Amino acid sequence: MKNAHFTEKMQTTFWPSSNRFPATRADALARLAEFEKTASRYSRDRNHVVPDHTNVSRLSPAIRHRLISEEEVAKRLLHRYAFSTVEKFLQEVYWRRYWKDWLALRPQVWTEYLKGLTALTPCEAALKLMAGEGEVAIMNDFARELIETGYLHNHARMWFAGYWIHTAKLPWQIGADFFYRHLLDADPASNTLSWRWVAGIQTPGKTYLARRSNIEKYLHPDLLKEAGLDQFESYERAIPKNTKRPPITAAPFENLNVTITADTGFWLHDEDLSTEPSCERVFLSEEPQASSAKQKWITSAFDDTQSRLNHLKVERSTIDDLVSWAKKSKVSQIIARRPEIGPINDKLPAIRSTLETAGIKLYLEMRPEDLALQSHATAGFFGFWKKIEPQIRALI
After folding, report:
1. Residues 6+ apart with CB under 8 A from 290
2. CATH classification of the domain holding 193
3. Whether 45 and 129 share a structural domain
4. Collapsing DSSP states into helix, strand and coil, what is residue 227?
5. Average pLDDT, stretch 68-86?
6. Which of 34, 167, 218, 307 is surrounded by the most beta carbons within 10 Å?
7. Measured between alpha carbons, how far is 255 from 269 in angstroms, rounded to an integer?
8. Do 86 and 160 belong together in one domain?
């Protein structure tokens, strides 16, 4: 009966299936062309949560995994519109880049999050809410939508996180992990830092509270459910214990000049799937995902990437097989896009050590456009945006 109830719930909401989020480069470019026609209305409509999420681009998974890049998106829209017309959308696109660079300069924030998460065990209330069986109907719907499709509108993410932290009084780290395991577009920086922001840790003195008036204003009537909304009318915000601004502890990354030789291999991972490898031998590392929706999307994205690289010698496996591939392929050096702070980056010291023992060097590189942005993420986003705006405008 429980499964039947779940199916009924899914059928009576208006959520897009996961295939509405393009998982190939060609489909992402086609979706961008489609969104381009209505991009001028994004600033007006973006906060509204509507059936099928037709008022937003639905490109975030493709951008997060770099099936298409931020620069490609900006170029396409600025070719058609004045900068001021699409500035709000471009800001949303570059928020993700900002979070990545901010965290790269402060890697201890990620380490502290993992340490906190490891020390926690989900309580019954957290387990029920993550299963879509909590006390507030609309929050249950959001949890089910996340699990089924791997997506939530940004406003719904904020409401859910605000409810989780300030109403249900649950640890933000467990909520962040729930989102990370299921969101198609989740990356360690934007996900972790957004949850910190809602909790009042990221920007000291500022928290996000989910309010009934806001939910009723922006959630489409066909999606709105009244049960439990009274909990958003009056409550006390959770006060974080530590709101000290984390210091910068890492220097900006620098590319090295690497000479491509006949025994050079390229390691391609899921943080940059539109990269065109600069050598013939390629290792494509695909990691298993925690949710079925995310696994389906990632598999499709990797299938597409492998197909686009069919003119090269490609081996596809998990990151654990990188070293054995390198030995088998008789490469003396490997080039890869620098993994951002997160799970892949966490494995780098061990990988690098094993490669060095085998006499194989690992060189990491960043896209030139990313290098030009990274040093500006020293403070808040709008200071970052002001500094990078000339670079974005130059794309016109």
Report:
1. 181, 182
2. 1.10.579.10
3. no
4. coil
5. 97
6. 167
7. 18
8. no
* Helix-helix angle 172-182:154-162, to 10 degrees: 150
Question: Residue 283's closest CA among 321, 257, 246, 253?
Answer: 321
d(C-alpha 362, C-alpha 356), whole Å: 8
Q: How many domains does the chain have?
A: 3
Same domain flag for 99 and 153: no
Together in a domain, 15 and 94: yes
- Decide if pLDDT at 19 tops 70: no
CA distance 183 to 186: 5
Residue 246 lies in a domain: no
Look at the block and give the residue holding tokens 């429980």.
Answer: 2
Are residues 88 and 128 part of one domain? no
**238 falls within a domain:** no
Q: Provide the pLDDT confidence category of residue 240 given band limits of 50, 70 and 90.
A: confident
Assigned token pair, 270: 């899921």
Contact 135, 280 (CB under 8 A): no
Closest CA relative to residue 72, chosen from 36, 19, 22? 36
Average pLDDT, the chain: 92
Neighbouring residues of 131: CB distance < 8 A, sequence distance ≥ 6? 143
Same domain, 385 and 342: no
Residue type (1 letter), 304: D
Task: Kindly report the CATH number assigned to the domain that includes residue 306.
Answer: 3.40.50.620
Residue 287, φ and ψ in degrees, nearest 5: -95, 145
Task: Kindly tell me the sign of the dihedral angle through the C-alpha atoms of 149, 152, 153, 159.
Answer: positive
What is the span of the domain harbouring residue 51? 2-105+380-393
pLDDT in tens, 152-174: 999 999 999 999 999 999 999 99
Identity (one letter) of the amino acid at 196? Answer: R
pTM of the entire predicted model? 0.93
